[in-house]
Amino acid sequence: MQINTLERKQPDSRYMDPSILQVLEDHLYVLKKDPDNTLLPVSNHLNYKYEGDFYGLLNELKVVPKYHYITMRINNLVNSTDYIGDKDFVIFPNVNEIDTIINVHTTQIT
C-alpha cells in the first residue's frame, strides 16, 4: 500500500468550529428526523473491526470527514470511542440540510 493511500483529508475547519458544533447540536432533533437521511449498511465484520472507533467506520463507509461529528451525534454517540460495534446501519444525515444550517449561521455572524 502506498503512503498517500493512507493519507486522510482534514475536515473543513468551519465544521469543527465550536459555535458551528453548538448550532448543529441545537438542530440535532430536526436533523435526526429528516426524511432525506440515508441508511448506510454495516456488516458484522465492520462492526467488529471498528468497535471503539466510529470515525474509522465512517472512513471505511466513505463518509467525508467534515460530516463525521454530526453523523456520530445523529447516531446517538458522544465520542467516537463510544461505538460498541452493534449497528446494522449508520444513519447518514442529509448534508444539504447541514450545509444550509451552517451557511445561515455563518452569514448571520459575519
Descriptive terms for the model:
single chain; 110 residues; mainly alpha; two-stranded antiparallel sheet
- The parts where pLDDT drops under 50 for at least 5 residues are 1-6
Give the terminus-to-terminus CA distance. Answer: 44 Å
The residue-averaged pLDDT reads 89
Strand proportion? 5-15%
Helix tally equals: 7
N-to-C SSE string, H for helix and E for strand? HHHEHHHEH
> Roughly what percent helix?
40-55%
| Rg, Cα atoms, Å | 15 Å
Largest sheet data: 2 strands, antiparallel
Total count of strands: 2
Shape: elongated
Give me the side-by-side strand order of the main sheet: 1-2
Structure class? mainly alpha
**Count of spatially separate domains:** 1
Characterise the protein shown here.
The chain has helices at residues 3-6, 18-26, 28-32, 44-49, 54-60, 68-74, 95-109, and strands spanning 38-41, 89-92. The chain is mainly alpha-helical and 110 residues long. The chain has one domain (13-109). The chain has a two-stranded antiparallel sheet with strand order 1-2.
Write the layout of secondary structure elements.
Elements: H1 3-6, H2 18-26, H3 28-32, E1 38-41, H4 44-49, H5 54-60, H6 68-74, E2 89-92, H7 95-109
Antiparallel strand pairs: 1-2
Short précis:
The chain has 110 residues and is mainly alpha-helical. It is built from seven helices and two strands, in the order H-H-H-E-H-H-H-E-H.
